[in-house]
Design goal:
- By secondary structure, the protein is an alpha+beta fold.
- Strands 10, 11, 12, 13, 14, 15, 16, 19 and 20 form a nine-stranded mixed β-sheet that branches. Strands 1, 2, 3, 6, 7, 8 and 9 form a seven-stranded mixed β-sheet that branches.
- The chain is globular, with a radius of gyration of 28 Å.
- The two termini are 29 Å apart.
- Bound molecules: adenosine-5'-diphosphate and magnesium ion (MG).
- The site of adenosine-5'-diphosphate has 17 residues, from strand 10, strand 12 and strand 15.
């Protein structure tokens, strides 16, 4: 007998939730008034306000100077901070503390220790020393190190990052204190994503302040800023746990196209279903408590797809907050009978999920990528803007490599989201200003947007932007920041940000050096600057593209311009090996040669493992779920055919169906055998050949199996089909 079917699941999935039995609905309505954002914002963090209230003045001052100016922290303040932090955490109900860090897996890690220390009288007291705050010693041997550490050298250290506030995590059963930390090997090499990010911010700060000095601006500090927009899917957990592919790999490895996908264009910005909206509000409330300034929510393009975005923050805190956002989104979903999918391509045939990384740099009082109304007069802006363009052109391969991973191969260049070719979009106004400079040596005008009349007298006239938006560009100037759109939805933003900061530091450095040399010769500032800008624009003009990035013509045009088109992870990761990139990171103190090498190796390893798991999961599901279902159906058909024959009933319908199903079963068997053989082989001993085997053999073989399975899904009876379908998963809300 067939098992309970997807039909029954759908009903359960839809009924598994109602407004009144949501976690909030359960509470007395009166106990759940509209919450006071200002009051709860940051209530679970040990931020500057809390520190000011609890710390001796000199200690507080030392901390502020580290947080705000990036100065080195006097280690003697640690004991005082630890004491205050512990008291605060205990008041919040915490029983444990944890150094919270971000290993090269791309996610976070934590190990909890209780505050409890036995005392002489047989009781226990809560203790937490400065040493415990500053340094942790997790066993590093089970984290990816890319050869930086032999397995017998297990020691690793975590080091307190005082510039990102500690926070208390609360569950129904209790709370613990989490302390953001960096993670390094016993030999002092970074094993995490935070350390190089902090180093890159330091490099950028130094170079940007040096350049600002040339403009007569004295800044205390220049900070890289990040605002990451996160796309995600929500599906009922009823389905999730019935899809071993989602559980094992985060994406569906099978699934025929439903009759309806996203073609009606009715989901994007549509009215948010109540269950989902309640979820979003709950997520936001939790994030507010953690001091994460989430701001925007909306439906995305694909059915069951949504987006959340915060207000930007300094790069380090933004990166920590982005991790907290993903963790919170995953956790809260379960309260609503939902599962939050962060994979780049959970469903074939509808849009995948990306993470747009808005990136800029600024002083205490000004955003250095703010053009103002007349960019042609804003020389300082033009300097930084051209530096960014130059950086991206010079380091296309590296920039592309920062977003290279197995999940993202389904998006980049796959006819949606940005293409795999890295280019820069500037918009009409800015493009025009830069072309004026490169052609005439200076710019005299900035195109203005003017006012937009809508033709109905009751409607206001709208100020129109001087340039349109462009959805297809991987690196687009969007008003006062660049938006790097090629990130995958599941990935940490730290590494892309690290690279942007580093290549920007280099560009600013090179351009400042050139400018300083010219000034030393006695050339006037404006003249020297314009000549420099004109030269740089000419040299890097090829990276600027304001047209349709999805078009075939762009692929060809980019080829003619000599731009890279790295279509998959394996090709893109090659760029981490380039000697000039190793020198770049070393020069700005961001990564040593060995640290960079290790990152390359870890990225390859992760690619290999992910695709390998997908290959095995495909084979498992096809062998143990799909093939048996198809054969059961065939058996049923054959029984009918047999009886028809006995009874002398003639007709071609049954036999025709037998034939069709049988042909598909043959096709599945053949493609499955091939995949199983390739899974067994693994591609040799060294990592490079394994990775090539995954890309060149496993990926196409999985697709062949999928093709047979998806066609079977269209003919095998619904009550025989063992997996929830796209029709179910994407539309039950
Ligand atoms: P859009 O919807 O046009 O992409 P938004 O203004 O909603 O633009 O911004 C998207 C993201 O960009 C938000 O997270 C926002 O905080 C962020 N952002 C805005 N200004 C900056 C900046 N100077 N640096 C980094 N991110 C920024
Ligand atoms: Mg955006």
């Amino acid at each position: 007998m067939a098992k309970p079917t997807a039909r029954f699941d759908s009903l359960a999935a839809a009924q598994g939730w109602s407004a009144s039995d949501s976690p909030d609905g359960k509470r007395d309505k009166k106990a759940h008034p509209a919450f006071d954002i200002e009051k709860i914002f940051g209530e679970s963090t040990f931020g500057l306000t809390e520190m000011r209230a609890r710390l001796p003045k000199p200690v507080y001052k030392a901390l502020v100077s580290t947080v705000e100016q990036g100065t080195e922290l006097d280690p003697t303040v640690a004991d005082a901070v630890a004491l205050a932090m512990k008291e605060w955490a205990l008041e919040k109900g915490a029983t444990h503390f944890s150094h919270w860090f971000q290993p090269l897996t791309g996610s976070t890690a934590e190990k909890h220790d209780s505050f409890i220390t036995p005392n002489a009288g047989g009781g226990a007291v809560a203790e937490f020393s400065g040493k415990e705050l500053i340094q942790g010693e997790p066993d590093a041997s089970s984290f990816p190190s890319g050869g930086l550490r032999a397995t017998f050298e297990a020691r690793g250290y975590t080091a307190w990052d005082p510039t990102s506030p500690a926070f208390v995590v609360t569950t129904a059963a209790g709370s613990y204190l989490a302390i953001p930390t960096a993670f390094a090997s016993w030999t002092g090499e970074a094993l995490d994503t935070k350390t190089p990010l902090l180093r890159s911010m330091h490099a950028l700060d130094g170079q940007a302040r040096r350049a600002l000095k040339l403009f007569g601006v004295k800044a205390r500090r220049v900070l890289a800023t990040l605002g990451p927009e996160q796309e995600y899917f929500l599906i009922p957990e009823e389905y999730y746990y019935r899809r071993p592919d989602l559980v094992m790999t985060g994406r569906t490895l099978f699934g025929a196209q439903p009759p309806r996908g996203q073609e009606l264009e009715d989901h994007y910005f549509g009215s948010i279903p109540e269950r989902v909206l309640s979820y979003m509000m709950d997520v936001e409330r939790e994030l507010y408590k953690l001091g994460v300034p989430v701001k925007t929510r909306h439906n995305e393009v694909a059915p069951a797809q949504y987006e959340i975005a915060p207000i930007y923050e300094n790069a380090n805190v933004a990166a920590d907050h982005q991790q907290l956002t993903m963790i919170t989104m995953r956790n809260v979903a379960r309260k609503y009978g939902l599962v939050c999918l962060m994979h780049e391509k959970p469903f074939a045939g509808v849009n995948g999920s990306g993470k747009h990384l808005n990136w800029s740099l600024g002083t205490e009082s000004m955003n250095l990528l703010e053009p103002g109304d007349d960019p042609h007069t804003n020389m300082q802006f033009l300097f930084f803007c051209v530096a960014a363009i130059r950086a991206v052109d010079k380091h296309q391969g590296l920039v592309r490599a920062t977003v290279a991973h197995a999940g993202n191969d389904h998006r980049l260049g796959a006819n949606e989201a940005p293409p795999a070719i890295i280019s820069v979009f500037l918009g009409d106004q800015l493009n025009d200003v830069l072309q004026q400079i490169s052609e005439n040596g200076s710019a005299k005008t900035s195109k203005q947007g003017g006012l937009l009349g809508l033709g109905a007298p009751v409607l206001p006239h709208l100020p129109r932007h001087a340039g349109d938006r462009n959805r297809t560009s991987p690196f687009a100037f969007t008003g006062n920041k660049f938006e790097f759109r090629a990130l995958g939805s599941s990935q940490s933003i730290s590494w892309p940000a690290t690279v942007l900061n580093t290549i920007m530091a280099e560009s600013i450095d090179d351009m400042s050096t050139a400018l300083e040399a010219e000034l030393a010769k006695g050339t006037a500032f404006e003249e020297a600057l314009l000549a420099l800008l004109a030269r740089e624009i000419k040299e890097h003009n090829r990276i600027i593209f304001n047209g349709d990035g999805y078009s075939e013509e762009w692929q060809q045009e980019a080829g003619r311009r000599g731009l890279l088109n790295l279509r998959n992870t394996v090709d893109a990761l090659e760029y981490l090996k380039e000697p000039q990139n190793a020198e770049l990171f070393e020069k700005y103190g961001v990564l040593s040669h060995r640290e960079l090498e290790s990152r390359h190796e870890v990225a390859l390893e992760i690619y290999f493992k992910m695709v390998n798991i997908e290959g095995e999961t495909t084979a498992d599901i096809a062998s143990t779920m799909i093939l048996p279902a198809a054969i059961r159906y065939l058996n049923e058909l054959l029984a009918v055919a047999d009886r028809s024959k006995t009874l002398g009933v003639t007709g071609t319908g049954v036999l025709g169906t037998v034939q069709a199903v049988s042909t598909l079963v043959d096709e599945l068997r053949v493609s499955l055998d091939k995949l199983v053989a390739q899974n067994a082989e693994l591609g040799g001993d060294d990592l490079e050949s394994k990775v090539h085997h995954m890309r060149d053999n496993i990926v196409p073989s999985m697709l062949a199996v999928r093709s047979a399975v998806d066609r079977l899904e269209k003919v095998v009876p619904d009550d025989f089909w063992p997996l929830p379908t796209y029709r179910d998963m994407l539309f039950v809300k």
